[in-house]
Each structure stands twice: as structure tokens, then as C-alpha cells.
Specification:
Length: 237
């Protein structure tokens, strides 16, 4: 009775227990599945894969463009911050004279004061790096000049009367500006004469750096503008 039920169950399940039976072989049925893909299935699969890779490449290009723009933005910010930090620090030292009564007593703190050029001097060392101040601003790095280079679109820095060297680049024609004010807040129009330079109480320094956007479809450049007011604490002479 149980054998009849097994045979009936096998026939209903679609398996023929006696099909393809060979002597000495197992009676486990052999299932046959279609092998390979039809042409239409292959075309559909390739189309889906193509759309996926197209979307992935578009995302990659977008992400790479954002990263490149951020790299340019960080670069221009660092350039403008570097220039402003140096200018603020050294203008604050202009006219420093820890030694009084020497042969250079009464030297000017500013020797040039123009819209895009400033030269300052101070005494902080002797002839050697470890020597104490000697009262004269004629030792290395005691005479500092910042000037705008129109040809190179950048700011140059010179020390001790030497040739100006590139300091930062990517500065547009109006990206470096120096404004001079007296103690009453009146602006002094450059270039300043010696009496006007002696009257300078504060200097507003503005530095702007700019680079083209890496995405050619964007016409506006990436810029960074920083400004600071420097009060000159040391006497003019």
C-alpha cells in the first residue's frame, strides 16, 4: 500500500522514477534546466548595466569636480591668510627701537607708503642672529618691503634692500590695497610724504586672491578676501 502511494506521489510531482534508469545507476531523478540566455535577455542585461555605469560615472565626475573646486578654494584662502598674517605682524613691529640714543636714533618706521607698496623698518637684532639690538635698522631682515607685481599678478616681499621675491600669487590687479589713516581717522592719500608717514596711526590692509573655477561652465572665479586694521604702536621717529 505504501509503495503504491509513493508511486502515485512521484507521478503527481512530475518525476518519473523509472526514466533514464540505467543498470547499476542511482534512481535519483535528473533535473534539466535551460542553459545560457536568449539574445533578448542578453540585450536587456547589457542595457541595464550600461545605465548603471553611466549613472556611476556621472556621480564620479560630479564628486571629482566638487573636490577640485574645494582644493582651489582652500589654496586661495591659505594664500590670502598667509600674506595678511605676515603684513599684520611686521607692520605692528614697524619703528620698534629698543635701543635709544644710538647713531640711528630717530629713524622712520615707514620709508615708503603707497597704495600697493609699503616699506617698514625696525631694530630687533645686531649684525649676527644672536646679537642684541644695536639701535640701527640696517641688519638683515630689519628693512621689509611688500609690493604688488602687476606682471606676475602677485605680491612680492623684499628684505634688507634686496630684490623683491615672489610671496603669494593669484592676486588680481585690485587684490592688494593699503589705506593709511591718521590719529583722527582721516584717510591719507598715497603716496605719502615723510610728514604724512609720520602721521600714520593705522593701516587697513586688504588682500584678495582669486583663481578660475575648475568647472569651465562656471564663469565666476573662486576668491578669498581678507582685511585687517593694524595700529602702529611705535613712535614714527
Amino acid at each position: 500500500m505504501s509503495r503504491q502511494r509513493s508511486a502515485v506521489s512521484a507521478r503527481h510531482s512530475g518525476w518519473d522514477l523509472h526514466r533514464d534508469r540505467k543498470p547499476g545507476k542511482s534512481s535519483i531523478p535528473s533535473l534539466c534546466v535551460p542553459c545560457g540566455l536568449a539574445l533578448i535577455e542578453l540585450v536587456v542585461a547589457l542595457g541595464i548595466a550600461g545605465m548603471f555605469y553611466t549613472a556611476l560615472y556621472g556621480f564620479y565626475r560630479l564628486h571629482a569636480g566638487v573636490l577640485k573646486a574645494e582644493e582651489v578654494r582652500i589654496n586661495v584662502q591659505e594664500n590670502s591668510r598667509l600674506a595678511l598674517d605676515f603684513l599684520v605682524r611686521e607692520l605692528h613691529l614697524a619703528g620698534a627701537r629698543p635701543v635709544r640714543g644710538g647713531p640711528c636714533d630717530g629713524f622712520e618706521r615707514l620709508t615708503v607708503a603707497e597704495e600697493q607698496t609699503v616699506t617698514m623698518q625696525y631694530d630687533f637684532r645686531g649684525n649676527s642672529a644672536s646679537a642684541p639690538p644695536d639701535g640701527c635698522p640696517d641688519d638683515p631682515s630689519e628693512l621689509i618691503t611688500y609690493t604688488y607685481d602687476r606682471a606676475g599678478q602677485g605680491i612680492k616681499r623684499a628684505t634688507s634692500g634686496g630684490a623683491p621675491q615672489p610671496f603669494i600669487s593669484d592676486v588680481p590687479a585690485d587684490g592688494f590695497l593699503l589705506r593709511y589713516f591718521d590719529r583722527d581717522g582721516n584717510e591719507l592719500a598715497p603716496a605719502l610724504s615723510s610728514p604724512q608717514r609720520a602721521a600714520v596711526h593705522s593701516i587697513v590692509v586688504t588682500v584678495r586672491t582669486s583663481q578660475s573655477h575648475p568647472d569651465l561652465r562656471v564663469t565666476d572665479p573662486i576668491s578669498s578676501e581678507l582685511s585687517s586694521t593694524v595700529f602702529l604702536p611705535n613712535p614714527p621717529k
